[in-house]
Write a structure and sequence with these properties.
Layout lengths: L10 H34 L2 H9 L1 H22 L3 H37 L8 H21 L2 H31 L4 H33 L20
């Protein structure tokens, strides 16, 4: 008996599907490198590195267009169903999330330049830890998608609360700084903005992890309660 997805399972289709995943993985590597460079440029006060992050935006945009084009052609030519269809739909969504993370890396670089112009403050040291978690979430979310691992995806969802908590800690410290040192207002606001961009990066990584559940289990968990009521806010980024 022919299964519902047999029509789409041809050697050419499988090769194109594998290529789609490989292109997404490559885009993820590029975006992760941009994010890492933006934070390294902040920590090292490296203006040249921050400029390179902004220049690299064009590469990410080109990759997004190419991946969308491949995905739409797969849909049109093969009319996939079941898990194959879910994978392609998820790939399109993940592609958008990766492009947005690339934009956030550029935003961080731009905020860092303004921060340097305003003057540095010790609270800057709070941000690398946020970046470390956000980058790890992104890497694991992409790994979960490539390997169809629900366990890895679940771990990404659970770490989102940690990143949100760190952002709250950073904001409290910066508000305290502004209260006691008015001259540091501009610097503190730029660091707050960078913290927000890192938190949003975690939200996009969470989106990718949720898409893994959609692909593998056919479940849309975006509005489900995973864990405590407080955790729900971390799943809807």
């Amino acid at each position: 008996m022919t299964t519902p997805s047999t029509a789409s399972i041809t050697p050419h289709f499988l090769e194109d599907l594998a290529a789609l995943k490989q292109e997404l993985a490559r885009e993820g590597e590029v975006v992760a490198a941009r994010l890492s460079s933006a934070i390294k440029g902040l920590v090292d006060h490296d203006l040249d590195m921050l400029d390179e992050v902004a220049i690299g935006e064009a590469e990410v945009n080109a990759m997004q267009i190419a991946i969308d084009d491949r995905a739409f052609k797969l849909l049109a030519l093969h009319q996939p169903v079941a898990i194959d269809l879910r994978m392609i739909v998820a790939a399109i969504k993940i592609n958008a999330d990766l492009e947005r993370i690339g934009d956030l890396a550029v935003n961080i670089a731009e905020s860092a330049r303004r921060y340097f112009a305003s003057g540095t403050v010790a609270q800057q040291q709070l941000l690398p830890r946020m970046s470390e978690i956000a980058e790890a979430m992104l890497a694991d979310a992409l790994k979960a998608f490539i390997t169809n691992s629900l366990g890895t995806a679940q771990a990404v969802l659970e770490r989102d609360d940690t990143l949100d908590s760190l952002r709250d800690q950073v904001n409290r410290r910066l508000v305290d700084l502004m209260r006691h040192t008015p001259d540091a207002l501009s610097s503190a606001l730029e660091l707050m903005l960078i913290g927000r961009h890192l938190e949003r990066t975690g939200d996009h990584a969470t989106n990718i992890a949720e898409d893994v559940f959609f692909v593998v289990a056919g479940e849309d968990i975006r509005h489900q309660m995973l864990g405590t009521p407080e955790a729900k806010s971390g799943l809807n980024g």
